[in-house]
Amino acid sequence: MSKESSQDNLAQRAAELRIRLGGKEPKTLASRTATSFTGIEKGSGEFHFSLWGRRVILTYPALQVLDAHNKQDLSIFDQTMVLYYFNTCDGTPMAASWIAFSELPDGRFYNQAFQGYTGRELVKAFGNDLEAFEAAARNAGGEKRFPMVGTPLGDSAFVYQVLPRVALLVVYWLGDEDFPPNSQILFDAAASHQMPTDAYAILGSTLTRRLLKKPSQENTLTFRS
Domain of 52? Predict the structure, then answer.
């Protein structure tokens, strides 16, 4: 799929999501999404929150996603992810435990493909060079998680807070004479309450690109209906 076609699909989906959100009570939305809502005048206002650590604004009722610093529109990709979040998030707190993509709704059917363009790509890039992986993870804005008993944190792991109730964890295992290196992107156990599985597939691809230092490359995955 071409970049233009992908953007057209995203724009269409964003328009559909805005229609679904239209008329919903903003304070209820703010409570569900763990964002703050400030009324500007009667019937209008702004949601304030962070996206990948960047301060952003969702206007109401127009539902445009803006950079909080310069008030410029975010990319159609980022706008669509935010609109998915506001449509899906039901107020369930994060679980603070991690699950694989295969454990998301319908994730088992697409897990092999997901691992192919996420974890396997990371292993191709970093192999057994844990130092290089950690440098890339920090440069991408990750916060290191140290191995703890009962958690799948491998030899190194970094968490990324994408949205107030959406976090991704990238885990890296070094290889040895018996097993090759491995990497996997995990999701908060309450993830299905915050966004659909399709959106997590794209966020996982986005994180992989950030780790491979290609943040400007547009995501060309398509949405399933």
Answer: 3-88
Three-state DSSP state, 64? coil
Number of domains comprising the chain: 2
Q: Before 215, cis peptide (omega within 30)?
A: no
Domain boundary among 39, 64, 88: 88
Q: Which bin fits 171, alpha (ψ -120 to 50), beta or left (φ > 0)?
A: beta
Question: Using 50, 70 and 90 to split pLDDT, how confident is the model at 222?
Answer: very low
Average pLDDT over residues 164-181: 94
Q: Is residue 33 part of a domain?
A: yes
Identify whether 40 is part of a domain.
Answer: yes
Reported confidence tier of residue 152, pLDDT bands at 50, 70, 90: low
Considering the entire predicted model, what is its pTM?
0.88
Nearest CA to 165 among 75, 70, 32?
Answer: 32
Tell me, yes or no, whether 151 and 169 share the same domain. yes
Q: Are 89 and 33 in contact (CB under 8 A)?
A: yes
The pLDDT of residue 146 is 73
Domain assignment present for residue 222? The answer is no
User: What is the predicted pLDDT for the residue at 223?
Assistant: 41
